[in-house]
Amino acid sequence: MRFLFAFLLGVITTTSGIALLNRQFPFAFWRETAREAIKNKSLTAKSAVEEGDTLYEQQKVRESLFYYRLGISLDPSYALAYYKLGSRLAEMERYDDAIDAYVEALRLRPNYTEAYYNLGLAHVSEREFDKAIDALKHAVLIDDEFLPAHKALVEAYSKTGKLELARAERQRTALLYLGRGDSNSARALIRQWDDISVARSRSLVRTAGNYSELGKALAESNLYEAAIEQYKQAINLNSNYTDAYYNLGIAFLHLGQFDQAADALRKVKALDPTSAAARRQLAEAYIGLGKTQLADEELYESGILYLRQGMREQAATAWLSMKNTSRTASMIPVLLQPTQPFLSQRESKETNEDVRNARESLPGNR
Questions:
Q1: Domain coordinates in residue numbering, the chain
Q2: Fold match, 1-108 / 111-204
Q3: What is the pLDDT along the chain (366 residues), one digit of tens a residue?
Q4: Per residue, what are the HEC states of the chain?
Q5: CB 45 within 8 A of CB 77
Q6: Does 1.25.40.10 match the CATH number of domain 1-108?
Q7: Angle at Cα 108 formed by Cα 106 and Cα 110, nearest 5°?
Q8: CATH code for the part of the protein at 111-204
Q9: Whether pTM exceeds 0.85
Q10: C-beta separation of 333 from 325 below 8 A
């Protein structure tokens, strides 16, 4: 009786832990727990949890719960017992109770990575995504190489429409896989854009900017066909969206669809005649189509625009890409003059006037 009194007294001192236990097994639990403690005076919290693990491995999940609770009763400060109890309750889809168990485990052991991870999963199951994100961020903060938490963060971010965070987390996780030599898992993770885009579309504020950002995220993962669809959605909402047209053209270039690339980039040229990058990429589309004369003209014009912006290296690269070598040679003296007024970025109106004058006097100009 003295042992039983000491046992119950120790249990009563942990109010938060007992609140969870009382809700699960009010009177019957205490009666059976007391009997078990009396029979096994040498039983410890650790051995009780180990017995629970043995029963769980035998697929006796409900029976294992008793021993995890017994472990908590024997040592209310034993975080592992709460963690194991939470894991089994979560498997039984009793997420609210599992969350309580994980929270108690973390109160006792604040740097418990696995407890934060499973707490996050339980919140995801309850569709409490902000709470899930908070728990999972704690898990990766404690152990940045804990891959399951990174993957779960991708899901949680995507389900809340936080595409940029989901993309960044997905890439970070892929890099961790690559660091471990698991290139297959890395590639598989990068290609899992469907769930993200579907989840995003459900909560997406349908603006051209959002569709364009989604397209960029997909393109950065080399998912160009999917990116193209998003750019088209952006253009449907804003027919003068220069950035979407430009990125659409780039995506078509990556796919070798040069006609479509040229169409998109010509639209950028019409919307923004000063875009050197658009002309440079339009030249690539013409090269792909075998239209070298048109390509040279765009390369020439892009070089002029690059010089207007003080970007001499880009101008040189554009002109050196021209098939008409004599025309390229004619531009070399221009590049070798370091003090040409139109190379300055500090003079605006004067610079633009000098550019026009210089362009008219350049050899080979039509």
A1: 1-108, 111-204, 273-366
A2: yes
A3: 334 434 443 443 344 444 444 454 444 554 555 455 546 556 788 999 999 999 989 988 888 898 999 899 889 999 999 999 999 999 999 999 999 999 999 999 999 999 999 999 999 999 999 999 999 999 999 998 899 999 999 889 888 888 878 877 887 787 777 677 776 776 677 666 544 444 444 444 467 877 787 778 778 777 788 789 889 988 998 999 999 999 999 999 999 999 999 999 999 999 999 999 999 999 999 999 999 899 889 988 888 888 888 888 888 888 888 887 766 666 666 665 654 444 444 433 443 444 455 445 444 444
A4: CHHHHHHHHHHHCCHHHHHHHHHHCCHHHHHHHHHHHHHCCCCCHHHHHHHHHHHHHCCCHHHHHHHHHHHHHHCCCCHHHHHHHHHHHHHCCCHHHHHHHHHHHHHHCCCCHHHHHHHHHHHHHCCCHHHHHHHHHHHHHHCCCCHHHHHHHHHHHHHCCCHHHHHHHHHHHHHHHHHCCCHHHHHHHHCCCHHHHHHHHHHCCCCHHHHHHHHHHHHHCCCHHHHHHHHHHHHHHCCCCHHHHHHHHHHHHHCCCHHHHHHHHHHHHHHCCCCHHHHHHHHHHHHHCCCHHHHHHHHHHHHHHHHHCCCHHHHHHHHHCCCCHHHHHHHHHHHCCCCCHHHCCCCCHHHHHHHHHHHHHCCCCC
A5: no
A6: yes
A7: 45
A8: 1.25.40.10
A9: no
A10: no
Structure tokens at 223: 């998912």
